[in-house]
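Anyone else keep sequences and structure tokens together like this?

Example one:
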Amino acid sequence: MHATLTDVITDTTQNSIEAGAKHISLEIVEDGKTIKVAIKDDGKGMDEATLARAFNPFYTEPGKHDKRKVGLGLPILKQLCESTDGAVSLKSQKGVGTTLEYSFAAKHIDLPPMGDLVGGILMLFNYPGDFDLAFTHRIGDNEYSISRLELSDAVGGLESIEGLNMARDFLASQEDDISGR
């Protein structure tokens, strides 16, 4: 099981990157009662047969993982959502893209902590590939949005330690601002 919600968020967003998406949207909304996550992409999508098997722990897309024949990400997500009074929804169309939405009861005793969200988002932004990831985080009435390309341009690239440090500082300052820290 994942140790933090950030682990879940990065794992599920990484699926969009691996599906060849060029445009990915990741939105996290916290209203005090629920934590909602929505990931939308224009990746390769899934046909109806694959979509029907997506939550089966004994299935993974052929060719996705060289060394294993099971895919536990979505089944674990579904279990976590259901055990924390949340829900999960997966919609996909082959050749069009996928939308994954999930939620948790924010105060549920079994809900893992958020963890290092800044580090997780920075890791996703630094994932190799030709894609843009638009990230929005809203807590109550406060929110910020930034895309991978915007952040990379602002800090002079995410390939150097200096650029990564500036990006981390920026994301941390935005998180502090919306959370009232």
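And example two:
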Amino acid sequence: MKFFLCVLGMVFVIEGIPYFAFPETIKSYLMKVYQLPNGTLRIFGFFSVVIGLLLVYFGRN
């Protein structure tokens, strides 16, 4: 459980850095993401999940 909390904390740190350092750029980027079709976002999300699962698999073995 300690390892999970450590990893979760690092995810929050890494995800928070761009919002802290470049808030205006993030806002414009999110507006562009908002305009993307749902299918494109689903494909991007699917590949993100697959890559994440592969990283976890290879990291555990």
